[in-house]
Amino acid sequence: MRNPLNSSAPGTLRRHLTVLAALVAAMLATLAPGTTAQAQTATMRAASGNPLAAGPWGLDNHDKIYRWYQDSTGTKKLMLAKMALRPRMFWFTDIAEDRLVEGKIRDYITKSQAGNPNALVQLSVFRLWPRGEGAKHVPLTLAEQASYRRWVDNAARGIGNARVAMVLEPDLAVALQGWRPSVRLRLASYAARVFSALPRTTIYLDASDSDWLSPSEAAHMLRAAGIRYARGFSLGATHYTGTAAEIAYGTKVVAELAKLRLPNRHFVIDTSDNARPFTYRQYYAKHPSGWFDVAETCRTRLERRCVALGIPPTTDVASLRWGLSATQRAQARAHVDAYLWYSRPWLVYSAPAYFDLRRALTAARTSPY
Q1: What would the DSSP string read from start to end of 238-277?
Q2: How big is the CA angle at 340 (ends 338 and 343), to the nearest 5 degrees?
Q3: What digits encode the pLDDT tens for the residues 86-98?
Q4: How far apart are the C-alpha atoms of 236 and 359, rounded to whole Å?
Q5: Angle between helices 243-259 and 326-335 (to 10 degrees)
Q6: What is the pLDDT of residues 221-272, one digit of tens each?
Q7: Cβ distance 346 to 83 under 8 Å?
Q8: Is the Cα dihedral 336, 339, 343, 345 positive or negative?
Q9: DSSP state, residue 314
Q10: What is the pLDDT of residue 22?
Q11: Residue 30, number of CB atoms within 10 A of its CB
Q12: Nearest CA to 122 among 335, 293, 319, 272?
C-alpha cells in the first residue's frame, strides 16, 4: 500500500498529520478523568500478556495444612495433598501490626519462593476493617486512616521486587453498606496505587460476586477504589458461586469498566470451594439458621450446594477439563488470568488460627477434581 505521508500532492501531508493528531487526541480522551501516568501504564499492562503465566508459582509449605500433610499417612495424606501441594493465597490483615508487616511479608515471600526469585507469591490484603466488618457503620478515625496508609507503605517495602499476585481487599463491597463508603474506597485506591507501582506486583481489586452486586455497581465501585492502577479484579473471595457464573458476570463487569473508560481489565476467580456451587439465597433456603461464612462441606460426591474443593489453581482457564461451554471457554480465554485459591475452606472464619481438619478432609474427599 502507498504511504500517504509520502504523497507529493499539495497539502496531503498537512491533512494526514491533522488526522493523526485527532486520533491521538481521541485516544487520550478515553482515559479516565484525572488519570496519572501510572494509571496509563496500568492500562497498557492490562492489555499485555498474562503476568501470572510468566513463570512458576511458589508454595506455602509452612502453614498448618502442610504440616498436617507431612505428618499424615495413607488416605488422609492423599486427601490433604489436594490442598497442601497446591499454590494458595495467604491473607495479611491488621493482625500484622504497622511496624511489623514489612518483615512478616518479606519472610513469607522468602519461604514461599524457596530460593527461586521468579516464583509467584500469592497474598491477599484485608486491612480496611480494624474492628471487623460487623463494625461497618462505625466511623474510621483519622488515626485509623493514617494507620492504613502506613501499613500499606510498609507492606509495599516488604514486597519490594518480588513477583507477587495480590487480591486487594476481599469483601470490598461491604464498604458500600457502611459508614461513608467513599472513605474506605479512597483508602483502597491508595493501596492499589502503591502496590501497583511495585515492579513485579499484579493487583486484582475485589469486585464481589455474581450473586452480590450488579455488573454496573461493581464497575463503579472498582473505579472509585482505584481499578485504574490495577490489572483487574477478583471474584468469589467470600461466596461460593460457580465458575461458569463468575466468568459470565466478570465478562459483564469488564464491559461496564470499558464504558467508564477503563478498558482491557482482566480478572481472577476463586475456585477453592465452589465445586458444588450455590448462591447466598440458595444457602439460606437450605439452611435457614446457617452461617454463610462457614457453609457446610459436602457429605457425599452426589450432594449439591455445599462446599467442596473446586478447579485447582491454574492459568489454563479454558481447558476442556473444567466442563465449560464453548462460549464460557472463549470468555475465559479473553478475560480470565487464572483460577486461584484465595478462600480457604479448610479454615473456620477464614482465620489461620482455626484450621479444621474435618472440614479439610471432607472438602477434599467430595471434590470432583
Answers
A1: S----HHHHHHHHHHHHHHHHHTT--S-EEEEE-SSBSB-
A2: 150
A3: 999 999 998 899 9
A4: 19
A5: 50
A6: 999 999 999 999 999 999 999 999 999 999 999 999 999 999 999 999 999 9
A7: yes
A8: positive
A9: B
A10: 37
A11: 12
A12: 272
The length of the chain is: 369
Q: Provide the grid cell at 239.
A: 461466596
Please say whether the beta carbons of 279 and 312 come within 8 A: no
The whole-number pLDDT of residue 52 equals: 97
* Alpha-carbon gap, residue 334 to 344, rounded angstroms: 27
Is the distance from CB of 365 to CB of 310 less than 8 angstroms? Answer: no
DSSP symbol at 179: S
- CA-to-CA separations, 254 to 138, 167, 237, 261, in angstroms, rounded: 32, 17, 18, 11
User: What is the pLDDT, as a whole number, of residue 60?
Assistant: 87
Provide the terminal-to-terminal Cα distance of the chain, rounded to the nearest Å.
54
CA nearest to 211, candidates 131, 317, 295, 334: 295
- Angle 198-200-202 from CA coordinates, rounded to 5°: 85
How far is 204 from 225, CA to CA, in rounded Å? 11
- Residue 235 is classified by DSSP as E
**Burial class for 286, CB neighbours closer than 10 Å (0-12, 13-18, 19+):** middle
The whole model's pTM is what?
0.86
Say how many C-beta atoms besides its own lie within 10 A of residue 139's C-beta: 12
* Predicted confidence (pLDDT) at residue 16 exceeds the cutoff of 90: no
Question: In terms of pLDDT, which residue wins out, 158 or 350?
Answer: 158
Q: Express each pLDDT in 286-314 by its tens digit.
A: 999 988 988 999 999 999 999 999 999 99
The cell for 91 is: 491473607
Give 3-state DSSP helix, strand, coil % of the chain, rounded to 5: 45, 10, 40
Single out the residue of 226, 240, 318, 232 nearest to residue 272, CA to CA. 240
Which carries the bigger pLDDT value, residue 155 or residue 347? Answer: 155
What cell numbers appear for 152 in the block?
500499606
Adjacency order of strands within the sheet including 90-92: 90-92, 121-125, 164-168, 201-206, 232-235, 266-270, 336-340
Q: Helix axis angle, 215-224 relative to 243-259, nearest 10°?
A: 60
**Mean pLDDT in residue range 35-46:** 56
Gap between the Cα atoms of 181 and 279, Å rounded? 25
